[in-house]
Design brief:
By secondary structure, the chain is of the alpha/beta class. The chain has helices at residues 60-74, 88-99, 143-146, 162-173, 190-198, and strands spanning 25-29, 35-42, 48-51, 81-84, 106-107, 121-124, 134-137, 151-158, 180-187, 206-212, 214-217, 223-225.
Length: 232
């Protein structure tokens, strides 16, 4: 597949045989059996890899399917407002808010405007931009839309958990505790420890459309789920 071909189509169930080994792409399955091909990103050690999703490069059909599936999981929680994490989470958060019948959503940001307040910001790190030193901000003008309301905190992928915990810390500084954390993909198991350390309630409040494991290279040179990693 050409790089630009990924994330462009949701395939019917059974389109690709999942034999537990992968070469050029990983086959992720939604709960209804539909399949999505994800590129495999090799990590620095050369022996481990992750399935990748960049939702703002996905087709509208794929984004729509992921937002609808996430909305089905979040709808019973009676969320009043959706808050999105930058950068990629903003695309999914906006689509999700529409699926939930909301007229708007709240984008968190990394670009400081002159009217922002330093006490309403936290340090932010990202697995996809590890060398950049960022801060996560909330527009003070948006606080009345969040205070006293049932908030969903949304990112496109939960991987290391760093971005989600930063979002939780920022909202906590504003006196806000989300009722749910949502993402299109839960990537490997690395995020669980960090999120559990942030508070015992967060594991039960975190939902994703699908999950992907840490991958390891086998003796045949193909990729398979790491033995200690779960695919559920």
């Amino acid at each position: 597949m050409a790089p630009h071909d990924f994330w462009q189509e949701i395939h019917p169930p059974g389109s690709f045989v999942d034999a537990g080994e992968f070469t050029s792409f990983y086959v992720a399955a939604l709960e209804d059996g539909r399949q999505l091909r994800l590129p495999i990103r090799v990590l620095d050690d050369g022996d481990h890899a992750l399935a990748s999703l960049i939702v703002n490069q996905a087709s509208f059909d794929v984004l729509d399917a992921l937002a609808e599936s996430l909305a089905e999981k979040i709808r019973p929680m009676n969320v009043d407002i959706v808050a999105g994490l930058p950068t990629l989470g903003l695309t999914l958060a906006a689509a999700l808010a529409q699926k939930l019948g909301h007229g708007r959503y709240i984008p968190l940001g990394t670009s400081r405007k002159f009217w922002y307040r330093d006490e309403l910001s936290v340090a932010l790190s990202s697995i996809t931009t590890p060398t950049q030193q960022k801060r996560l901000y909330i527009d003070p003008r948006m606080l009345p839309l969040l205070e006293g309301r049932r908030v969903a905190l949304i990112d496109d992928v939960i991987s290391s958990g760093a971005s989600i915990v930063a979002g939780l810390d920022l909202l906590a500084a504003c006196g806000i505790e989300p009722v749910v954390i949502g993402a299109a993909m839960l990537q490997s198991e690395r995020w669980r420890e960090r999120l559990a350390a942030a508070g015992p309630q967060w594991m039960a409040r975190t939902v994703g459309v699908f999950a992907t494991p840490m991958l390891e290279r086998n003796a045949a040179g193909r990729w398979q789920a790491q033995r200690s990693s779960s695919r559920t």
